Each structure stands twice: as C-alpha cells, then as structure tokens.
Amino acid sequence: MKTFPMFLKTSGKRIVILGGGETAAQKCRLALKTDATLVVAAPALDLELAGLAATGRIEHHRGPITPALFEGAALVFAATGCRGADAGVAALAKAAGAVVNVVDAPELCDAFTPSIVDRDPLVVAIGTEGAAPVLARQVKTKLEEILEPRLGDFVALAGRLRDAVAQRVPQKKRRAFWRWVFAEAPRRAHAQGRERDAAKLLKEAIEAGGAPDGAIAAGMVSLVGAGPGARDLITLRGVQRLQEADVVFYDRLIDTEVLELARRDAERIYVGKTPGAADWPQDRINAVIVAAAKQGKRVVRLKCGDPGVFARGAEEAAALDAAGLSWEIVPGVTAASAAASELGRFLTERDAVDTLVLTTGHASRDGTPPRWSEQLKPGVTMAIYMGVGAAPEIQAELLGAGLPEGLEVEVVSRAGSPDAQMLRATLGDMARAVAVSGVANPAIILVRRPKPVSLSLSRRAAPRAVAS
Ligand code: SAH
Predict the structure, then answer these.
(1) I want to staple 338 with a disulfide (CB 3.0 to 4.6 A). Which of 129, 193, 228, 431 is the partner?
(2) 187 touches 198 (CB < 8 A)
(3) Is 251 one of the catalytic residues?
(4) Residue 362 parent element (H or E)
C-alpha cells in the first residue's frame, strides 16, 4: 500500500474547501456528510454553495488565504479550478500542518478521497490508489446492492443498545447474539421497513440474555420477483434476498444472469414447468419449499416478473401458512410493464386509457376460455399473459363481440432482454401477423381500446424495428 486507509475525526473540527465553483461544490457535498464546520474560501460562490452559505450550513470566507485559515482543520480541499492557484494554496495549507487534497493533482495530495458507500454510521471506503477507478465504482455498486438503504439506521440502533448488551448478554453468547442481530430476523424486519418490530426483537432478546433459541433455524421464505429477465431489472431488495438465501427455487423463465446474483454457495433448485415435459406439479413445489424452510434454511422462491401476477404465489403462500412458516413478497417488474417499456408506450394515458387489465390467454381449470371482450371496455389497455399461442382464439372472440378490426395490438416477446422482439398489428390481422412473424414465448399481447373522444396525444416512436 502506498496510502493507508484511516477514518479522520471531524467532530469539533473544520474542513476547509478552497474554491467556489462546481469542483468545490462536489467536495462540499462529500464534506457535508460529516459533522465538521465547513469553511469555503473563495471570492464568489456558485448558486449551490451560496445557498448553503445563506442557510448557515457552510461558512463563506471571502478574505485572503492565510495560515490562520487552516488552524484546527481536519482536512483541506484545494478545488479552485485553476492548477496554479490550487498548488499555491495547497503549499500554504501544508505549511500550516493541514492534510491536503488537491483536485486532479495526485502528486500534490497528502490524501485521496475514496469511493464511499454511506450507511452512516456504517461507512465503506474503497480505493485503488488511482490504479482502477472503474473497478472501485463496480465494487461500490455491488456493495450498494448488498447493503440495504436503511441499514445505517439499524446500525445506529444497534450502537445505542451496545451498553445494554454488554450488561445483560453474557460474553460467551455475545458474538452469536450480534450475528443473529445482523443476519437474521431483526435486520430483516428493519430492512422491510418494520423498524418497531426490529427494535422490539432486539430489546426482548437483550432482556432474555441472548438471541432466541432456534431463531437462526426459523425458516423464512421470500417470494421474489426476478423481473422480466435482465439482471438490472430485479429490485435491490430482491438481490439482497438472493444474497442471503441458502436455497433458491427457480422457474423456467428465470434468466441465468439473475440467478447468478445468488450467493455462490447457495443451492439452486429448478422447479420449472416445461410445457410438454416431465413437470413439477404445484403440490410438489409447495412441499419442497415447505421442507427447506422447515430445515431452517433461508429460502428464496424466485419467480419471473412479479410474484403476484400469474405466478401461483397464493398457492405457495397458503402451503407455507398451513405449515406455520413465515413468508413475504418482494415485488418485481411484471411483463406488462417491461413490454410497455420496450415499445416506449404507456400502459395508461390520461383521457385515452385509464384502466389496465392484466389477463391470461389460458383457459381456466374447467376449460372455459376467458371472455376477453367483457374486459376490453373503452379506455382499457389489456395485457394478455400466456396469450401468443391463443392469438387466433383471442382475435375471434374479440371480433365476434363486435370490437373493431382496427384496434391496435402490440406483441412483445422477451421484453427486457437484448433479444426482445416487437410486433405491431391490428386486431383484424393479429393472428396472421403473430404466425408470420414467428414471435415466440414468453410474449405478452397488449391491446389498446382508447376512449372514443381522445385528445391528440403525442407518442414516442418504437425504439426498434417493428415486424408485421
Ligand atoms: N409473474 C410473471 C408472469 C408469469 S406467467 C410476470 O409478472 O411477468 C408467464 C407469462 O408471462 C409468459 O407466458 C408471458 O406472457 C409473460 N412473460 C414473462 N416474461 C416475459 C418477458 N420477458 N417478455 C414478455 N412476456 C413475458
């Protein structure tokens, strides 16, 4: 190492920033995270810095730069935007004994600012000694995914309870206690926004003298929406659950990219329903999930799109309820949203379509096909899941009910992935266009029936070529 990582104390100290423009403002934003008194020395301040000065959050020093300015400074940033001026003021600050960072002049720096992941009081600093700033950013992004946004509040809560833990939890149980706090129910509850539950769990455990027996073994199932397939279309909470899981049960439409977000040593079990092939019946899926959770494993049930949309989530949840196991839903981007985004279209548009219907192309268990026409009222966008195979039936039913041949139909397959395909047709031509284009599953059909009197509405052109 050519630099040594340390955390500088800022309480009761000053951070001096030399310069009043955007570069200085950038350093100021960083320094504002601390409790130091911020002094910005410049003849004039840009709008942002002037605003901060007006509210008293920073002090504006207009006078000459003298050694007195650097007294009691934890850190000095030279950020005037002029190399010569930076070098001059940096020399003065160094002579006054300050630790100096000069923007874009590593040779003049005593210290460098790392990439920061801020979950104050948990702070992660990442540095590469200038060798690979892009890698530092990648590491930062990974950590941002793993460390939930509210984690700082939870760490602060744990910090406030440290003395109580030291008094009530015997030394030999303390490590297990903290492991439970940060890896199990308390942290999970907090991450889900149940701060009060988290605090209650912690306080009860402290009063009881340790983590509850079997708490680590208590299975928990997260029904996680993986989104439409792209790795960057799953939520941060979903990634976090994948990182925590001991076992991941996943479906046919789950992309390997998304599965890779799971912990390396997590078990991955395929429970997909491949059309026409030997199948995982729902009862068996329920049984294996329940069994894993009962063994105390942290279980993720990964479903494509959103777990609440055509994903048989309710049946799995009922099985978990029956076994007395806890579960949660982590939402995901459903295929209708992903398809609209591929098309650059909006699922609702003021005055034209104000109702969104999510429906299926599949017949119900008794064999009755859905009556799409009953739902497709004026003002409706209808998203038909599992519908491309039934395109002729859908078309016939809608036309049979008197819907106009000219209605706009869009079909998107593999929405959200680089090989997404789009097709635009009219209701009268839908089945033929689907057959000719060879548009394949997984695909969603969007049918739009605007209200009769619609204002002229602008619309973005589809970003990719449209086959028909
Ligand atoms: N829970 C999922 C739906 C599962 S049902 C969700 O919320 O999206 C499976 C159907 O979803 C497929 O037949 C197809 O109609 C649709 N689907 C899933 N992923 C898709 C994708 N990437 N692009 C288009 N349609 C998709």
Answers:
(1) 228
(2) yes
(3) yes
(4) none
Interstrand relation of 421-426 and 408-413 (parallel, antiparallel or unpaired): antiparallel
Angle between helices 195-208 and 171-183 (to 10 degrees): 170
Assess whether 27 carries a catalytic annotation: no
Residue 332 has which token pair? 């995901």
- What's the gap in Å between 205 CA and the centre of ligand 1? 43
CB 330 within 8 A of CB 235: yes
Residues 76-97: tens digit of each pLDDT: 999 999 999 999 999 999 999 9
- Ligand 1 pocket check: which of 282, 329, 385 to mutate, most ligand atoms within 8 Å of Cβ? 385
Cβ–Cβ under 8 Å, residues 352 and 450: yes
CA 387 to ligand 1: nearest atom: 15
Centre of ligand 1 to C-alpha 311, Å, is 9
What number of residues does the chain have? 468
Q: Is the peptide bond before 121 cis (omega within 30 degrees of 0)?
A: yes
Read off the pLDDT of residues 352-386 as tens digits, 9 standing for 90 and up: 999 999 999 987 777 788 899 999 999 999 999 99
Instruction: Out of 301, 310, 315, give the residue to mutate to test ligand 1, the one with the largest number of ligand atoms within 8 Å of its CB.
Output: 310
Are 200 and 159 in contact, with CB atoms under 8 Å apart? no
Ligand 1 mean position, distance from CA 304 (Å): 7
Query: What band does 459 get if pLDDT is binned at 50, 70 and 90?
Result: low
Which pLDDT value is given to residue 456?
54
Percent of the chain topping pLDDT 90:
74
Residue of 86, 246, 251, 306 with catalytic role: 251
SS3 of residue 335 by DSSP: helix
Q: What pLDDT, on a 0 to 100 scale, did the predictor assign at position 215? A: 42
Ligand 1 contact via 224 beta carbon (within 6 Å)? no
Q: Encoding tokens for residue 468?
A: 């028909």
> Which residue, by CA, sits nearest to atom 6 of ligand 1?
305
d(CA 284, CA 277): 16
Whole-number Cα distances in Å, 343 to 228, 409, 459, 465: 14, 12, 10, 10
Averaged pLDDT of the chain: 90
Both structure tokens of 425: 């047709």
Distance CA 61, CA 65 (A): 9
Asked whether 270 and 288 are in contact (CB, 8 A), the reply is: no
Q: Is 338 in the pocket of ligand 1 (CB under 6 A)?
A: yes
Atom of ligand 1 at shortest range from CA of 303? 1
Q: Measured from the CB, is residue 412 less than 6 Å from ligand 1?
A: yes
Q: Is residue 468 pLDDT above 50, yes or no?
A: no
pTM above 0.70, yes or no: no
